[in-house]
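BUG: 3D viewer hangs when loading the predicted structure for this chain

Environment: internal workstation, default settings.
Expected: structure renders.
Actual: progress bar stalls at 90%.

Input used:
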Amino acid sequence: MTSRLLAALAAALGLCAVPAAAQTAHRTPAGPEIDAAVARLMQQTGSRGIAVAVIDGGQVAHVKAYGQRNEAGDPLTSDTIMYGASLTKTVFAYAVMQMVDEGLVDLDRPISAALPDLPSLYDERLADLYSDYRGLAEDPRWRAITPRHSLTHSTGFANFYWLEPDEKLHIHFDPGSRFAYSGEGLTLLQFMIDRGPGPDLGDWTRDRTFAPLRMTRTSLIWRPDFAANMADGWKIDGSTEPHDERSKVRAAGSMDTTITDMSRFAAALIRGDGLSSASRAELVRPQLPITTASQFPTLQDELPPAQRRPDLQSGLGVVTFTGPQGPGFFKGGHNDSTGNTMVCIERGQRCVVILSNDVRSEPGFADLVRFILGDTGVPYDWEYGAD
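Structure tokens produced before the viewer hung:
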């Protein structure tokens, strides 16, 4: 969905009005209040399905799914498999920081140290998973790319190589010099991990990330047991899209999950469970200024310094910001029939996670997050575009 369309929908549906309860205290609303707010959102947007989790004081305070999971009208439940989209990137960053704690990854060691012959490693059998790096032989800057650059979206790559006019991978700026959202950067880091001495990414997340956090119905690759209770999606025009049973592990966005499991992940992340204190601090530390007016298009010109939002920076797999309640971080996820968001505020260890199998839900996210958490300053104008 384009930023203009999101803005037009929000205006047309009257979603810019903030309920009075959200303008005063930052008390976490009770379950029935959240239910009513979600019902308003669904009525105003036409959304057919949405799931919401609330973390308060580092503990799961509310988990509930609303609406339908498919055109047949089967109910969306808290254990329905939903597409994680780019929330996968935050889970990937968490897994990488676990590897940092184990001494398996150094954030600042160039990927070329592990893959010195990267441009010659093309394998047609893996072409549907990894990129064609042969063209990088003509640009020596690839040798400077580090895992930190991948996780802060500063590799210099476009979001995906097939978006380039010639459908080839290019480096558009010196690695580390600026932010430009790139799934390709995460794919490169996954390639390094999968070719390393340890387990591949799918095995690691299954055994070392999801299992300890009791995320029993989450995976970076499709599992047959998901089929009995999975969500299809609705596009902006109201048409349906079948659930994509992704057969490859992709760090940039292959995760299937549930709102119950994502509530556990968000609670663990805001508390720092499963990571050393240093790695957790590094994941959410503001590391690289974000200098564009919006997230997409990814390679747009940078704003003049006076027009940039100084608190808006990239962490590792998250975007960090500072608002009326202090520092926080967030990550979104989107495709033609999916709208997801996770917002966390450090003060009070509070988060909201929203998964929707109907992309029409997205214009209501900002107000629902504000209703639950209060005024946080989360940069939805940058996420979706302000125009």
